[in-house]
Design brief:
The chain has about 700 residues and is mainly alpha-helical. The protein is about 50% helix and about 5% strand. It has 27 helices and nine strands. It binds zinc ion.
């Protein structure tokens, strides 16, 4: 599970990811000069007219919220996106240097430069028109029967989903492949198959009776029709109706995001032969042949009912509807790399309508996202060399060690946990691999052909390269030290099947981590993020995997009962939050992340206290050490979000919106004494209502 979702429409293969993060960068557009960042909490961002116990989020961030404008190309800005801007700017300057130096043909540097330039060359993209995609559209048009359709659907399978690490359950392809350590054999890579087939972010967009969602669906119809028209199709309204009806039928078969979270329900091993009996309809032999998976004998099917339902739809829905669906999905996937009429129409719906940002981000910045996605490790290697000093690595490692020690003590002190369970929890901490800054080994892109003037082909081949690379790992021994996040990403991640954590170089920068800031600040800011990731090792998902990453319940029934009672209390706490009168948070959908927030801040607080070694922490602008710790935590979550984007986040994101993540402090006793929070104040919880997980 990663620390935050950067993209709410997780189609990484498209540019929808770009609409979310990052503010306009200094040097690349007009912007006020950046404010100097204080070492420690940022008092200028607070609103001290608010009582901490009444509105903690505004107390920490009120003046920042008042003084911050959402740029037109952003659906949301936050502390994360501001730092991601800096990381993007750093990455862009690396890419520019590389582009100037012109590496040898076939080298990583040449690929970075060619990929970047091929996207930046808008005139060439316009001049080529639809010609790059025409062979693909013709191949779809030539499909003459359901057998050929099954083969073609198999050809679209990509490694574009991720159930547990980067938690991305969305693919617009019929299904998605995730290659990861096996549930039942964590020493070898297994093939996980996940549901797919819809363009909108989640099944609720098709099924919800909410008025806002109905409006979105009306606009979606117009959008689908327009995309088809732009690609030269006739009779596009009728085609759009049929495509959307098919997506609606697929959405009805899908599991919800909350249901996807249950790994025990997901552990379904099917042999290749099982597919035709358990999910009849689709010609599976042809599908797997198209996907190049004929030799793969077994799969873990995450949502069996969705596979049965979607497969039956292949049989029951007319061939022509499926062909239109395929053509339309292809246009969406590659729209950002086609002429602006298509790229802009795509943005108008997925960026502006679904996320509320009226304007696309500057082209160079979208180019950085593309290069990071296709050649992330080549860029990351340069990034780590230039921006991550060894001292930062050493300091971060020390914090991790202190927070792990705090977890050990907390586990030992639990009165309700069985000694055997405690022993396995301690074993998990012993075998935990904590990656700081950058991976130990880098991906080899030699087999990925990048051409200087072919953005469509570059993306097409890049997606295939990544798919082939993943398929090539099936059955091979697991590398537990492998990373699943680039060094240049402002985020952090827990990899439960590897019992590993990654903290990329980019998040180990101010304001989260600052070698010159007081310990109170660093523990409140990055320390709580570190604690959050460690907590995933033991939470409702982590408790399903043992110290070797094997899917095995190592909790006794009474341990589980206690844990689930505490978790239910926390779910109820979050169910009560309502960002809109007609939309509450879903406490179950966000449970794992909320637990990690509670446990993370608790352990980081202990680690912080231990780091003082009995001394009193220095005050900063009148704030005592404990106060700085909690304010730094609250300031992690300063966010401005457009309404459409916030709605989408509430519906599809496993993380709670920033305000409610900041409010985690309600569950920590030390927060009450640090700010003298009293009964009657809005956020006050009586001691027995505060949720203690560990
Ligand atoms: Zn998390």
């Amino acid at each position: 599970m990663k620390f935050r979702n950067k993209s709410l429409h997780p189609i990484l293969k498209s540019l929808a990811i770009c609409v979310l993060a990052l503010a306009v960068l200094p040097g690349y557009a007009q912007q006020a000069p950046p404010q100097p960042q204080p070492h420690g909490i940022n008092v200028a961002n607070m609103d001290r007219s608010v009582k901490p116990g009444d509105n903690w989020y505004l107390y920490c961030n009120g003046d920042w919220i008042k003084n911050t404008q959402l740029p037109p190309d952003r659906a949301r800005i936050s502390v994360f996106s501001t730092l991601a801007d800096i990381s993007d700017k750093q990455t862009a300057s690396l890419i520019e240097d590389v582009a100037k130096s012109k590496g040898a043909g076939g080298s990583g540097q040449q690929k970075i430069a060619d990929l970047y330039n091929s996207y930046m060359d808008e005139a060439a993209i316009e001049a080529r028109g639809l010609s790059p995609i025409e062979p693909q559209l013709k191949a779809i048009a030539a499909i003459g029967d359901k057998k050929t359709l099954a083969y073609a659907l198999g050809q679209t399978l990509r490694a574009d989903v991720d159930a547990l690490n980067n938690t991305n359950f969305h693919t617009s392809h019929l299904f998605g492949l995730w290659v990861a350590p096996g549930f039942n054999d964590s020493e070898h890579y297994a093939a996980y198959l996940l549901q797919g087939g819809v363009q909108l972010p989640d099944r609720e967009y098709y099924l919800s009776g909410n008025e806002h969602m109905k409006e979105v669906r009306t606009k979606y119809q117009t959008h689908v029709s327009t995309m088809l028209k732009l690609a030269g199709f006739t009779d596009t309204d009728a085609r759009a109706d049929r495509i959307i009806a098919l997506e609606h039928a697929i959405a009805e078969k899908h599991l919800s995001l909350a249901e996807n979270d249950d790994v025990h329900k997901a552990n379904n091993t099917w042999t290749q032969a099982d597919f035709s009996t358990k999910a009849p309809g689709l010609d599976w032999t042809e599908y797997f042949r198209g996907a190049g998976l004929t030799r793969q004998t077994s799969f873990i099917v995450w949502q069996p009912t969705a596979f049965a339902g979607e497969s039956a739809l292949v049989e029951s829905t007319p061939l022509d509807t499926w062909k239109d669906w395929m053509a339309y999905h292809l246009l969406e996937e590659y729209g950002p790399f086609l002429p602006s009429a298509i790229a802009d129409e795509r943005y108008a719906f997925f960026g502006k309508e679904l996320q509320g940002a009226p304007q696309q981000r500057p082209r160079w910045q979208r180019a950085v996202v593309i290069v990071n996605r296709q050649l992330g490790d080549d860029v990351g290697q340069l990034y780590a060399q230039r921006y991550f000093p060894p001292e930062s690595k050493a300091q971060a490692q020390q914090m991790v060690a202190n927070i792990i020690a705090a977890f050990r003590k907390r586990i030992d002190a639990l009165s309700w946990m069985d000694p055997k369970t405690k022993a396995e929890a301690q074993a998990k901490l012993t075998t935990l691999y904590v990656g700081i800054g950058y991976p130990e080994t880098w991906i080899d892109y030699s087999d990925y052909l990048v051409k200087p003037d072919d953005i469509f082909g570059n993306i097409w081949r890049g997606n295939l390269f990544q798919y082939d690379r993943q398929v090539g790992r099936l059955g091979k021994p697991v590398d537990r030290h492998e990373w699943s996040m680039d060094p240049q990403t402002v985020n952090a991640v827990n990899l439960p099947l590897q019992n590993a954590l990654n903290f990329p170089a980019a998040i180990l920068q101010p304001p989260f981590f600052d070698a010159q800031a007081p310990a109170a600040h660093n523990y409140g800011a990055i320390g709580s993020v570190i604690g959050h990731e460690i907590s995933h090792t033991f939470d409702n998902e982590g408790s399903a995997f043992d110290s070797k990453g094997q899917l095995r319940n190592w909790w006794t029934p009474s341990d589980l009962d206690h844990f689930e009672a505490a978790a239910a209390k926390l779910a109820a706490q979050y169910d009560a939050y309502a960002p809109f009168p007609d939309l509450h948070l879903n406490g179950k959908q966000t449970l794992a992340e909320n637990i990690a927030d509670v446990a993370g801040i608790a352990a980081s607080y202990d680690g912080y206290r231990a780091s003082l070694k009995g001394k009193t922490a220095p005050a900063q602008e009148g704030f005592a050490g404990d106060q700085q710790f909690f304010i730094a935590f609250g300031q992690n979550y300063a966010t401005k979000t457009r309404d459409a984007s916030l709605r989408q986040q509430v519906m599809v994101d496993p993380h709670s919106p920033g305000e409610y993540r900041a409010d985690t402090v309600r569950n920590i006793d030390a927060w009450y004494s640090a700010f003298d929070v009293q009964p009657g104040q809005t956020l006050y919880l009586a001691p027995d209502e505060r949720v203690r997980i560990w």
